[in-house]
Specification:
88 residues; mainly alpha; 0% strand; 2 domains
């Protein structure tokens, strides 16, 4: 890499690190100032977002795939039946 690219990459990574550290410190102060009931609400919201919502999306996708597979089988049977009727 040339010197300019390395310097700009280093500056970018330093800025990203500084921003992340600032956000983490701010989050820590915010959590420290929260009452227990608000912490419970935040914990439940995070549990919903991180665990239950992805599971629901995966189950939705799985049921949609099953539905499409059943639809494909039904349509194939109908086509096969129609071809038999045309042959007779």
């Amino acid at each position: 890499m040339c010197k300019t690219t390395t310097d700009s990459l280093s500056n970018l990574l330093d800025e990203i690190f500084a921003t992340c550290m600032h956000m983490l410190r701010r989050t820590g102060r915010l959590i420290g100032a929260m009452p227990p009931s608000a912490l419970l609400a935040v914990a439940l919201a995070l549990a919903l977002i991180l665990a239950i919502l992805p599971m629901a999306i995966v189950l939705f996708a799985a049921f949609m795939l099953v539905k499409l597979a059943v639809l494909g089988c039904v349509l194939a049977k109908r086509r096969h039946r129609q071809r038999k009727e045309r042959m007779q």
